[in-house]
Amino acid sequence: MDLSRQTLSLYLTDELQPRVYSVSTALNGPGEQQNSGCTPRGRHYIRACIGAGQPRDAVFVGRRPTGEVYSADLARAFPGRDWILTRILWLCGREWGLNRGPGVDSFRRFIYIHGTPDSEPMGTPRSHGCVRMRNRDLLELFDLVKPGTDVVIR
Fold first, then answer.
1. pTM over 0.90
2. pLDDT digits (tens, 9 = 90+) for 23-37
3. Are 141 and 133 in contact (CB under 8 A)?
4. Most buried by CB count within 10 Å: which residue of 14, 59, 87, 119?
């Protein structure tokens, strides 16, 4: 993942070129400190893939589907909500003291790659620390990765 370009590149062994997706990372920029609202850097892996079988635009709270499906009416009813939609790829850091361990742990910070409303811009930092993706792109990515897949954020 390239924070300066706001892109996620997926390298598959049977393809010569990576699949490149536009993302939106933290409005507060890169950083590893707990409660910073920043996107952590370094080597990570996907610890959990959440939401298989849920509909596109399914709403998640606390990594659990609420039974809601995102809509303009729902957005008006909850204007301050940080929408986590469609699927969740929960990240875990691999580097002790940088993105793993006390005060900097990406997993305990609940850093995800997740879907967001289609009205949200991609390619510009706007999240609270997570990596936001278009729902259609996340559905494709979700089917191509599994727990243990390496993720590098730079």
1. yes
2. 999 999 999 999 999
3. yes
4. 87
